[in-house]
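Hi all, long-time lurker, first post. I run a small reading group and we've been trying to get comfortable going from sequence to structure in the token notation. Rather than ask abstract questions, I figured I'd post a concrete chain and ask someone more experienced to write out its structure so we can walk through it together at our next meeting. Sequence below, copied exactly:
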Amino acid sequence: MRAANVVHLIVMLLVGVAVVTRWQAIRRDSGDPAKRAVFLGLLLLEVAFALGLPPIYRGVFRVLGEVPALPQLLQHAALIGACHYATTFARESVEPGTPRPRWHRWVLPGALVSLVGLYLLGPLRRGELSQGWQGSDDPLVIGYVMTWLACCTWAVGDVLMLAWRNRMIRPAPMRLGLRLVGIGCLLGMAHTAHKVLYLALGLLHITVPWDESGPDGLQIFLLAPSFTCIAAGMLITAQSSRIARRRQRRRLIASLAPLADVARAVMSGTASRSRDTPHSQVIVIRDALVGPLRSYLDDVVYRRAHAAALEAGHDAEEAAVRAEAACVDAAVRECGTALTGRRAVPPMTYAADLDSDALWLARVSAALVELRSRADGHVVVDRR
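-- Answer (accepted) --
Happy to help. Here is the structure in token form:
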């Protein structure tokens, strides 16, 4: 088996796996335009690559009634569609909701109509199985080739400019995905330049020692890395939000851990840390604050810590965070001792939902760690 065929099959396999994973994603959320675009783009790319294999091409040729070069028309139409959906996906992922010029919606239909018209006048008229690997000097065939090349190049250039404008975008996975897409676009433009040069040399009757396409052609060695980078970049970009959420969740669990450990120390029968989630940590902390620690939370400690934080230059919100941390620390240290008199309950913050509560308590947890570190483990509560 030739190297070009091996590369072709490897890329087909990779894109096929990507199509299956995206199909599962789109079934969960079919209303997301970015997910729909990446699925359709990868599916059309897989169709284009499949039709590039001679056995599949000949089989489709026979099924379609042996109409000259018809499978190649389908292949080129699939490539145009894949490029169109790549552009749609990039815009929906990076600049969602940005209005596009009205004429953009006519680009894909116009390109396909032009392609079919030139196919009827060029490749179909010539009656060949497919376009030759050595190019053609027929002006209408050249016009057909230049049409699909121009459409793909326009779309690839649009994505490349979008990737360049947003090259410093966050989060990092999305930035990596866009850069891979940009590399794939550059390789795609290199393929276009090579194909145009090859056609020009053919018109000048200059023979070069290599085929442009076919089993020994250079085309696959430009297109394979190009489409691999674009497909990988689209997948990484599509997953970037999930990756960012997973990282944020891990950071939140780590931030809540000190306060959750303090809460577990005063609670009996609480679960271990092995399967901590932000929500479970919030529940443990709140259970401790409204349970064993409630009677020991002191408004005097809160007000003094709040005033000290304001004097130190912190804003009101950060002062509240530090005051709550001081209250919790004092309550934990006194928990289990005999209370002297009734205490006013401090104005502890309770968010409207678990997610917001987790973010707030993570800040309290960080302030608690800082407080204990600064005090070197010894806190003196002045209750005069």
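A couple of things your group might point at:
The chain has two domains: 3-245, 267-375.
The radius of gyration is 32 Å.
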